[in-house]
Automatic annotation (TrEMBL):
The lineage of its organism: Archaea, Methanobacteriati, Methanobacteriota, Stenosarchaea group, Halobacteria. It comes from the Archaea. The chain crosses the membrane at residues 12-32, 47-67, 79-98, 118-144, 165-185. This is DUF420 domain-containing protein. PANTHER family: DUF420 DOMAIN-CONTAINING PROTEIN, HYPOTHETICAL MEMBRANE SPANNING PROTEIN. Pfam families: DUF420 (PF04238). Keywords: Membrane, Transmembrane, Transmembrane helix. InterPro entries: Cyt_c_oxidase_su3_a-hlx, DUF420.
């Protein structure tokens, strides 16, 4: 099975990316029927943005640690940090998509000028980077997961991983700026 996956990494990356993005856009556009999901209490929905902000902050730390470990040649620690980052990303995404599927996107509560000239551009860049990251993350994950560490060096993992980590990091940071604008500043 691992050999079959290894030979089909671009194809699997494409399939996983399309499925993931379909779920994201299905939730954001409210195409996924909310009746398919159990409805949590208001307290749970109120907590999700705050939990996700904490998850994002921890993910920033684990991504930075993973990059540092890779630069130091500590590849087992790099792998552990990046797997932790992926787990945090999945947790964030599940909570976010659940909330958006049931309640829709959060409206911006601040002034229209701030929304137009600050919030929406930040949100757009955050979302765009998150979308671009998905296939990059799948690609580097599949490369690393299907090979022993010594064989990863013969792949494009390092090059694509640098781009993926950088974009992922910026996306998480911008996500927290969006959170601050939605739930703290206004």
């Amino acid at each position: 099975m691992q050999q079959a996956v290894r030979r089909r990494i671009p194809e699997l990356t494409a399939v996983l990316s399309v499925v993931s993005l379909a779920l994201v856009f299905g939730a954001a556009l409210r195409v996924i029927p909310e009746s398919l999901l159990p409805v949590a209490s208001d307290a749970v929905f109120d907590a999700i943005p705050h939990v996700n902000a904490a998850v994002s902050a921890v993910a920033v730390v684990t991504i930075l640690a993973g990059v540092r470990f890779a630069r130091r040649g500590e590849y087992e620690r790099h792998r552990a940090a990046m797997v932790a980052s992926l787990g945090l990303f999945v947790a964030f995404l599940v909570l976010y998509l659940y909330k958006v599927t049931i309640q829709g996107p959060a409206p911006f509560p601040g002034p229209a000028g701030v929304e137009t000239y600050l919030y929406l551009p930040l949100l757009a860049v955050h979302v765009l980077l998150a979308i671009v990251c998905i296939p990059l993350l799948y690609y580097v994950l599949l490369l690393a997961a299907t090979r022993p560490i010594a064989e990863v060096f013969g792949t494009r993992h390092k090059r694509v991983g640098r781009a993926a980590a950088s974009l992922w990091l910026v996306s998480f940071v911008l996500g927290n700026v969006v959170y601050l604008l939605l739930y703290v500043v206004y």
